[in-house]
Amino acid sequence: MINERSLISVLQKGLPLVSHPYAEIAKQINSSEDEVLNYIKLMQEKGDIKRFGLVVRHRKLGYKSNAMVVWDITEEKVDALGECFGRFDFVTLSYRRPRHLPDWPYNLFCMIHGKDRDDVKRNLELMIKSCDVAGVNHEILFSTRCFKQRGAIYINCDNDDKNTERAAV
Amino acid sequence: MELHEHDRIIINQLQGGFPLCADPWHELENTLNIPAEEIISRIERMKTEGYLSRFGPMYHAEKMGGGLTLAAMKVDKSRYDEVTDIVNSFSEVAHNYEREHELNMWFVIATESPEQVQQVISEIEKKTDIRVYNMPKKQEFFLNLKFEV
Questions:
Q1: CA angle, A95 as apex, A45 and B76 as ends, to 5°?
Q2: B23-68 pLDDT, tens per residue?
Q3: Which residue of A25, A35, A54, A159 is the best one to mutate when testing the B interface, meaning the one whose CB has the most B CBs within 10 A?
């Protein structure tokens, strides 16, 4: 029997870059290559694994600016607009989330990526026009810093050059 | 270091999936038309140089029984670093962004069970004396984490 927890935690570190990666994983968790392959397949079929592959650092690849754009959309229109926003290739996420009135009236969130802030703003203009939401209450929240738990590294989100990574104090 | 044409092919093709078979590299050799050894060494190099963060599965936290939410706080500038340290000291906090808004700290909480989300939020509120706004996903319209290069 395969130990699900061990498999999940070993996989989390990433697939070993060796000629037979699944055999290598099997060795680490006292299982067999076939069991590992079948179990990963099963997790994919069940939807436990959303996708399996490379995870890129988008800032390093030139998408240096990211903004969370939040909208206050009436319940009747939220489905249609959530779908509409998701159709743009620069949008990576479109979710409905709860409002927190009166402080936070926004219920539709999307993430927009771009080469820089102007690029993000141009993309947003395009969305507003195409989805016909001019006049709808929204805000754009640019990120200025981000902190990744793993490795305790601060990254300056808007200037992804050699000076931007520094160890957390 | 610039990306080579082969790096681009690897990035664009391997974000969506990876062969599940004993020798995946040789299967990729045929589909990408790049020698297996070269694929491995290019992935290794791009990881070292920081183009790739990981190579493996992206789990569906909620389906696997876990809890997941997006949380936000209004943090006074003078306390920002202190509060960052408190929030990030929780192992359940996956990543934490500073954003330009009154609600200026945004972070993801991922827990082993759904009930633990509220527990972590309460503890953060107690330790920082700042309200945490809980904004879990209610409906997913679209999610794409693939980037073309």
A1: 125
A2: 999 999 999 999 999 999 999 999 999 888 888 888 887 777 889 9
A3: A54
Over the stretch B120-143, which tens digit does the pLDDT of each residue have? 999 999 999 999 999 999 999 988
Give the containing element (helix H, strand E) for A69: strand A65-71
Residue A160 lies in a domain: no
Instruction: Give me the amino acid identity at A88.
Output: F
Q: Residue A52 — left, alpha, or beta (φ > 0 → left; ψ -120 to 50 → alpha)?
A: beta
**Residue B74 backbone phi and psi in degrees, to 5:** -95, 110
CB-CB neighbors (< 8 A) of B135 in chain A: 97-98, 100, 109
In total, the C-beta contacts within 8 angstroms joining chain A to chain B are 205
CA distances B46 to A56, A159, B50, Å, are 9, 19, 6
Amino acid at A15: L
What distance lies between CA A125 and its chain's CA centroid? 22
Report all structural domains of chain B as residue ranges with CATH numbers, in order of start: 5-48 (no CATH), 67-134 (3.30.70.3460)
Contact (CB, 8 A) for B147 and A66? no
Nearest by CB to residue B55, choosing from A18, A19, A54, is A54
The boundaries of the domain holding residue A131 are 65-147
Tell me the H-state helices in chain B. 5-14, 24-32, 36-48, 80-88, 115-128
